[in-house]
User: What shape does this take?
Amino acid sequence: MIVDLLDQTRLPLQDCDVCILGAGPAGITLALTLARLRPDWQIVLAEGGGESLPTPDENDSYRPAGDDPGVYPVGATRLRFLGGTSNHWGGWSRPMDPDIFEPRDWLGNGGWPIAHAELARHYDHAATWCEIGSNDYDADTHLEPWRDALLDVSGSSLLCHKLFRFSPPTRFGVRYRPDLQDASNVQCWLNATAVGLGMRGDRIHEAELANRTGLRARLKARHFVVAMGGIENARFLLAAAAGGAPSDSGLASPALGRYFADHLGFAPALVLLPARLEYGRRSHESGPVMPILSLKPEAQRELELGNFAITPVAHADDQLIPHRYGRNEALGLRGDDCWWYRMQVVLEPQPDPDSRISLSGERDALGVPRLRIDWHMLDSDRERGDRLLQALASEWGSRRTGRVRLMPPELAFERSPTFVAHHMGATRMGADAEGSVVNGDCRVHGIENLHVAGSSVFPSYGFSNPTLTIVALALRLGEQLSGRSGTGTA
Amino acid sequence: MERREFITGSLGGLSLIALATTLPGCRSGPAAPVVEPVQGLLDSQALAVIQQLRGTTPVALAWKARHGGGESPDREELERRLLAMLETDEPVHASAPHFSERLAAAVSRDFEAGRLCEIEGWLLSETECLAATLRLVLYGETEPAGATDWRQGELAEVVDWGPRETTRGVGVNVQPDGHSGLWFKIDHAPSWLKIEIDGVVAPTVISEAVVTSGLYGELRDRILDAPGEYPIALVDPMQRIRQPIGHFVVKAPPPYLVLEDGSTSVFCAVEAWGPDVTFAGRPSNPQREGHEGLWIRTACAPDQVQVLYDGDALVTTNDRGNGLITALLPPSHFAVAREARLQLHDMETGEVLDVGVLVVKD
Assistant: This one.
């Protein structure tokens, strides 16, 4: 059932079994999963927005404190309405690579407290929820028909091929609205913004909900799940913690709000590579796929680099080196025509405790402290980007493949990595409250019945777009909370 | 990233031996005339390899400029440095193709060792910069022949495309930014495919369903302003292959008549018509059931046109594409000798255009 609280003077329910705060991909997936696994439970899914694109006023709570828009355009990257940011998702999908879950000291990264294998089954089901034709990402199999249009990465190459798949994209609010409407044990409340948590000992006993028409009420539940988005999760928990939290809990963790990260996208180089390379999206019987270049795990270790997605995109003429330069066998090229490609790169950032979300003294219309975002890029990330270019110049030069041109100064902007709106890390997952907010089960350390869903729990970031992993984690959380398994049907 | 300094190679006590051989030249292009032996450290076969380098002049010019312009290293110094870069455990040869292979191997070693020569951001090897510069010093800026020729070939199957014609000054499939859009249904269009319109590679967008391109800016103005047939082709700018697929036709606007009040008629001038003479009961252009067939050729006529025969409307067809109007004159209308006025009538506006007088003789 869907209920708009703008039309209500009191809450339709006073208590429930599970209260999920936020109806984006994580919240909707979790609510419907729990509804099926536990028909005996009553689930409330509380969404801060309505059913359509929010007005600037309705999206205002994302505005950082003060007049300074800050370094991170929060308002442009969040959507407060049913379906959340799936409403402007591009559909790019790929699971996190297994090596992302492992410790990588050179990235200042202790890995995930769960193994990749723990998510594997859920990725299968997440593909269904995201309406992706297949969860098979085996590049060798799928790319064989196009081998001639891809770079040779055989033998000792640092590189390998990986695949992206594509969701239509699924707008979770539209796609699953009928399910929310029909589920007898789910109440999806619109215009019900969570503004606080009531805590007793090591348990949350109620959530405070409010909206702009003046409704302000409390909902009791046995379990609470914060699924408000990669930025709001941290903001909301920081605000909740300000009211007092156990000192050894995740709410008091120094990690709360820190390690805020985004994938870094940039185009640092022009490259001369064999002509006719095709790294675009293409049709496949299992659904559209797109190949990319990435670093082999052993190359990451050897070069102490993070993970990268590299896409050569055919580019216009270069004034200095013509494409026929590739015919110079005597200069260590293969004797065939080459072409220029712009190298589009997505770089995995190093987790950085100083990139953080914090609260200001200023409050939004519902009384929640406005956020501050101090997001920046580490010099070490820039250095890793440069090392990647050096490594590729060396590999392509020594393997007689091509040449690399660093983007000239007048295109410095393109060499400068920028955000791609994947909000991660600010309520990170880890072993203890000293360095993380939630444990491997996405439960807030030291709080028995408070969980977090979404990309804010990622302790490292890879390069994969986060939605598929968000949904997989939500499915896993659904099984854990319910104590039952079976999450496959979307 | 900081720019790297060019690191010069050293001879390191290497003894240089230039061997003349009769082995063929490098495989990277059409054979060049063998350069006559000259005084220097490289023999004629090695020089042929250097001469055949393609597209290296800008690199060489930039390298020379960085290294003192006119005061940059001379030929002998460049040859000396280049040969030093070929150092291996084997004796040094300067002859091709051994020279070509050693040169290529030296370039690979440079990249492995990080001996880079950065030219305007391009990370090149020291050896290739030296070789490029030596080529410039020896042979100037002239490129090997045939380096940039286009050839015709098949790139993809074009199922359909359009729009294919317009009238001068009239945009087709006009898009919000003002360009005239063209679409192409192409099976498995590769991402590097481009649409070429009248010799100009036009912006091309490739999706799974359709390839789109169009007439933009100056190209649009030039083509739409001048009636003619403009070649359309698929091109692969990398391999320089062109696949002609047809022409985009810009027709001259029809010559509408001007009425007495200065307004524009719905008709163009009648260019020809017939028959202008027939015989009572014996049609000149016999049609079914004894009808006389009349035809009128004109560049334009409205959709709702009728042929009038002394004011009687005849069954009329209007083939606008071919500029031909036809009508059937019933036997009763030419059963006896007479002279009858033929006219065209636009049923929508009521405008009438005189065509001529049909003479029916005994």
Summary: Chain B touches chain A through 52 residues (CB under 8 Å).
